[in-house]
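During the second half of the funding period, the structural biology subgroup turned its attention to how the target accommodates small molecules. The most pressing case was tetrahydrodeoxyuridine, which had performed well in the primary screen but for which no bound structure existed. We therefore specified the complex as follows and requested a full 3D prediction, including the ligand pose.
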Amino acid sequence: MSKNADDRLDRLFDAARAARERAYAPYSHFAVGAAVFSESGAIHAGCNVENAAYPQGSCAETGAISAMVAAGDRRIVDIVVVGAGEELVTPCGGCRQRIREFADAETRVHVADLKGIRSSFRISELLPYSFGPQNLTHS
Ligand code: THU
């Protein structure tokens, strides 16, 4: 990867890690941060926000995507998800679908721990044969 691309991803990773520090996860104690690079080049971060009524909690990716949409952007170029532990913190099923809504073949989903990015995926790897906006344009 070029140095510029590395710098870009470093900045995205730092934003996701900083958002993770602000996670509200008093029930699972599993803090997650996410940050999106959108088509305008802006960074949009989010963290998980849990709730005493457990199902009302939301994922870090959901927060980051909401911030992107609220800022007026519509395309995810890269998304970094940061969580601790041995296992890769890949997006949950619901968040894969939320990412897919704003993704294309070039979009990369980067999975990181607190030290840095561990693996990178295309959305088609995480969510093969997905249903998306184009399904609704042929009715
Ligand atoms: N979580 C995320 O925020 N993103 C993921 O990709 C996986 C799970 C959150 C939801 C919940 O607050 C906690 O992690 C434990 O599942």
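Two results from this model are relevant to the next phase. The longest strand covers residues 76-83. The pocket of tetrahydrodeoxyuridine is lined by residues 25, 28, 30, 32, 48, 50, 57, 59-61, 81, 89, 91-92, 95 (CB under 6 Å).
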